[in-house]
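Hey L., structure's done. Input below.
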Amino acid sequence: MALSDVPLSILDRANSREGTTEAEDLARVLDRAERAEELGYHRFWVAEHHAVPGIAGSAPAVLMAALAARTRRLRVGSGGIMLPNHQPLVVAEQAATLEALHPGRIDLGVGRSLGFTSAVRDALRTGKEAAERFESDLAELLAHLSGAATVTARPQNHAATPVFVLATGSGAEAAARAGLAVVLGGPALLREGSGGGAAVLERYRAQFRPSSWWAAPHVVVSANVAVARTRAAAEELLLPEARALAASRTRGAFPPLAPARASDPDGLPARERALVQETLAGSVHGTAPEVRDRLERLIARTGADELLVTGGAYDLDAQADSDRRLAALFGARPD
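Output:
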């Protein structure tokens, strides 16, 4: 399958940046969505993170409303809203309201992840067992969206909003049983010769039950992607987030993104340096021909129906340039 046959989308986590306010970080997300629409991207999604110093995006439904109001054609969605943190009725009402205001443009991606720390889980009134209720919460959400629940969510949606499940934990199996699209990514999926991601997708497709949302399995593959004039420049674009991820795994805090150079990891402690290199190895970055070749192989290997680009950058001009170069590879055109 040619890249031009695959819809191309963006997931922006609303990373914070050193030297900016979080209000400015959120405004930057809106600006990027406007440019993405002009470039012909298919979807623009935002995520849910609570009390993370390096991420300004905590309320996806609110940010989706702002994004939909600032754009005209771009599909806007969540990647995702974490069901353990919310009552299914409230999520259904939020999605239905957005759909009523912006018909045919809203996506609802849901996940089962919990708050990162016990303090956050306490603040959200959730415990670790909340994730185990995911499949029953998902069924309740779908009932509200379709009008089949004993309580009617308003405004009435009647399954107008497509639903996607993030494939963390048993998410792919839950998506298959409910007849929903699945979003899958991560280093294991990107590594050629690795069977982890392929096995998950094989089970998802084999177990899929058609529904009013999706008549057939639908796979969205997510990947951290950066395209630049040189491979070194593309790697430099990814380094700030790679360093922040390494810090979160070794020091327990995800800091705002800070400027980085290709030589910077050499000065990090050995464990953090290894984690940075691991993150870079699990991404797709380089010149346009290099990225095209890697993504063509990824899509062929996974049978992906769509590609969802992830990854935050400190250098906004370089990120905008990467978005343009990637859109050109896919031949993206505004609808």
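The longest strand covers residues 219-227. The mean pLDDT is 91.

-- N.
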